[in-house]
Design brief:
The structure is a homodimer. Chain A is of the alpha+beta class. Chain A folds into three domains: 5-79, Arc Repressor Mutant, subunit A; 87-128 and 227-340, Beta-Lactamase (2-Layer Sandwich); 131-225, Heat-inducible transcription repressor hrca homolog, domain 3 (Enolase-like, domain 1). Helix content of chain A is 47%, strand content 20%. Chain A is built from eleven helices and ten strands. In chain A, the strands form three sheets. A five-stranded antiparallel β-sheet of chain A has the order 7-3-10-9-8, with helices on both faces. In chain A, strand 5 and strand 6 (158-165) form a beta hairpin. The first copy, chain A, is elongated, with a radius of gyration of 26 Å. Chain A binds chain B through residues 101-103, 136-137, 139, 141-143, 149, 151, 153, 157, 159, 161-165, 176, 235, 238, 244, 246, 249-250, 253-254, 257, 339, and chain B through 101-103, 136-137, 139, 141-143, 149, 151, 153, 157, 159, 161-165, 176, 235, 238, 244, 246, 249-250, 253-254, 257, 339. The structure holds a DNA duplex.
Chain lengths: 341, 341
DNA sequence: TTTTAGCACTCGTTAACCTAGAGTGCTAAC
DNA sequence: GTTAGCACTCTAGGTTAACGAGTGCTAAAA
């Protein structure tokens, strides 16, 4: 069924009002607050039609209407105009992302905090799985007779360090040499690309220190096969009236604590760029069938490397959140691309 | 007023029962469940006395009694016997701490998670402020023409890295040399000990790269003047009936998000070793006057460097938590001491 | 044909009221 | 000093009634 102009206006009014108030919207409220030039009775008729076609729902017979998932979907796809963010604000946000550390992981984590702060919803940021990273440099630093600091510099811009103990004593010069040789052998390879022949070579040639370093590479890179992710602003959900019920809030929170669940949510690694909105039941996880998720990928150069997202009740301020997610994802991409250049 | 044997038994029974059930305890319950050999009426008389002396409270006239802060204090100081942890379990916990990374910060953070998991309360771990750390080694690694990775190795066992951009191009050899010279000049100093004469020297001698490195030291060390801290198991508080009220839970959670507050709580850096219990109103912050905190310091060798702690309702399982906090603090101290040796 | 005023009806919310039950303190007997 | 008995208090939970917001329908108006 096609919606005529007036039905659309009524739907728009219901959604706007419900997003604002979290209360079912009645015909009189609409007539009073949004001057559509018709009486409540007319609006009631339109509402009956909208309900029949599934855009709105009546929680109980003597209440107003609330939007259904289908209603929100229509709103997001057709009605909504992303809230414009004034240039000054845009620059400020860009700068706040930029101001962060040059270290990729810190930068991303801080961006997640910013996202939560700006939207007032729960922010999630998925970080590229380290396993995809390419080794750029290995550096060994002598700490004392028994301990050596191993530093792995990965592309793009991730640094991992780990202290190992060795039996043999090495001099600074020896370690410098070993660093150079290892770097030369392993540079440009990702973990997956290290052949067993190469690994045997290294173990033979460098003895226990070689094995230890390969262990680290193995642990640091292979262990973190799943994406890492950062969660911020989790307390914010208590501001939402729909999470007054402790059980519900607890359910969402404990879901978010679980890693796999999060990658389920944002995990649609599709190459699609731009902001994506997933509404209520469209979510893969039943636990958040009453939530919506607004996500966007971010990238280095042309390559998508991660996702940022915001989770809130289906009654979310889509227009505002949409703009912010878009802006932050773009800023992050731009700055990351700049950093690794 | 001195408590006679029977009053103590009654108090003990009330506290045990209330910790278990979270419901006010009546005289009949005690007579039935803990066989003190007297009738409810006698217990009522004792309870009236205990109330008058402030060890227990009657929430309303027709309810049972609940322990007051004073009651819990007496319980913790006099009655409680820390739950013994069987040797096997002790070893298992020790190993689980030990199994963590050799990197101090990761180790401490993982220990915090373990603490939350074992106690089922909110765990907080305060990490030594980096500013106290002593510089051990500086290493510069050439990433590409424009970017250099600066690694600061601090005592005890903390590694910081940061990528800087430079105008001048350096060769690997030059950087190695600069690393050595800087290390020589700054080794053994904490941030506070770096005199302005020394700083000028370095800026003169090493130009822009020297300034950049000093900036990093300044930022990384001085910025983190406040202790860092890790929070874990925050959702657990919803398991406690006293936090069914959303407002209360939100209050606690948002307090814990604030850094200063946390150091207020655990901040009593007293050199005292061993477990400390802070009950209800004894807490410095009014927001957690209905919570108790069980903390213990941990150390490297003889030197106290941080605090671990658990926060829960005053109706906390003190005996159990006490043992766990003690064990984990001891394990952590031992393992840290071993690592930096 | 579309819109609207009017009205009867539904049902959730709130307040008032009532009851059952748990627990007490007091008194008097043991 | 202890205990049985009893009157009393207060909360939790359930029921009822009034209220109000909102609806759908009908019939009149545009």
């Amino acid at each position: 069924m096609l919606l005529n102009e007036r039905k659309i206006s009524v739907l728009h009014a219901i959604i706007d009002d419900y997003i604002r108030s979290a209360e079912p919207v009645g015909s009189r409220t609409i007539a009073r607050r949004y001057n559509l030039g018709v009486s409540p009775a007319t609006i009631r008729n339109e509402m009956a039609d909208l309900e029949e076609t599934g855009y709105i729902i009546q929680p109980h017979i003597s209440a107003g209407r609330i939007p259904s998932d289908k209603g929100y979907r229509f709103y997001v796809d057709v009605l909504m105009e992303p809230s414009p963010i004034p240039a000054i604000k845009r620059q400020e946000i860009y700068r706040r992302v930029q101001k962060q550390s040059q270290e990729i992981e810190v930068l991303i984590q801080e961006t997640s905090k910013l996202l939560a702060l700006l939207t007032n919803y729960v922010a999630i940021v998925v970080v590229p799985p380290v396993v995809k990273c390419v080794l750029k440099h290995i550096q060994l630093v002598l700490i004392d007779e028994l301990r050596i600091l191993v530093i792995l510099v990965l592309y793009p811009g991730i640094v991992q360090n780990r202290i190992i103990r060795v039996q043999t004593r090495y001099t600074v010069e020896e370690l410098t040499l070993i660093s150079q040789q290892l770097t030369q052998k392993l540079q440009g390879l990702s973990y997956g690309e290290m052949r067993s022949g190469l690994i045997k070579d290294i173990k033979r040639e460098f003895g226990d220190i070689g094995s230890a370093i390969l262990d680290i590479i193995h642990n640091e890179l292979a262990d973190s096969k799943q994406e890492q992710y950062y969660l911020n602003g989790a307390i914010q959900i208590f501001e939402q009236p729909e999470f007054r019920d402790i059980e519900r809030a607890k359910g969402l929170l404990s879901l978010l604590e679980k890693g796999e669940a999060v990658s389920d949510l944002l995990g649609d690694w599709s190459k699609i760029n731009g902001v994506k909105v997933i509404i209520g039941q469209e979510n893969p996880r039943a636990e958040i069938h009453e939530c919506s998720v607004v996500t966007s990928n971010y990238s280095i150069g042309q390559e998508v490397i991660g996702t940022i997202g915001v989770i809130g009740p289906t009654r979310m301020e889509y227009a505002r959140v949409y703009s912010i997610v878009e802006l932050i994802a773009d800023s992050l991409s731009e700055i990351l691309t700049e950093i690794v250049k």
